[in-house]
Fold this protein.
Amino acid sequence: MVGPRAWVGGIFSRPSNRRFGSDKYLNYALTPIQEERLQKLQERLGVPYDATRADHQEALQALWDAAFPNVRLKGLISEQWKDMGWQGANPSTDFRLLLKQVGDRAEWEYPFAVAGINVTYMLIQMLDLHSGRPRCLPGFNFIGLLGEDENAFDILYCVAFAMMDAQWLAMHASYMEFNEVLQVTRTQLERELSLEDVHRIQDLPAYNMLCISSYN
């Protein structure tokens, strides 16, 4: 299979995160705040897009404003969405491709929206968030980060996307090499989340990529 569906399917069909043998990652207690935040995060991950929800509509509007800050969106159902790469006028029924074009990069760029979906699912698998509580080292350490910052997952997503983007550029990757790029990104993130001196999300070495990009 080729095209955007293959991008999603290629990642979604990967085996789940490997478990570590130590009982430390099987039997451990969560603090009340860790348990509360993990539950909220897992509930968020289980919510599909709903065009009737005001907060989802606002998020879609925010996506447009970020992409086209000087162009007014005439409505959530509009032919304007095609300018962003959606196939139809209603993105809620067609979460298709959003091509990120920056200078010369557009000649060998990846589909932005599909990449974001895959990065999200990669994090869910890597952190073992579909389990009642993570049973792998990266997930175990992530719980500690979540206890320190309730936005840890959102920040980690930004870090992962920045890492993926940098890897794509370094490899001069093609459309068909996206899975390889994402796997390299996952491996690096697993290593950073396994470091003993990472106690806050800001302690991740790759977090500096966000600080650098904010000045560009």
Remarks:
- Confidence is low (pLDDT under 50) at residues 1-16.
- The radius of gyration is 18 Å.
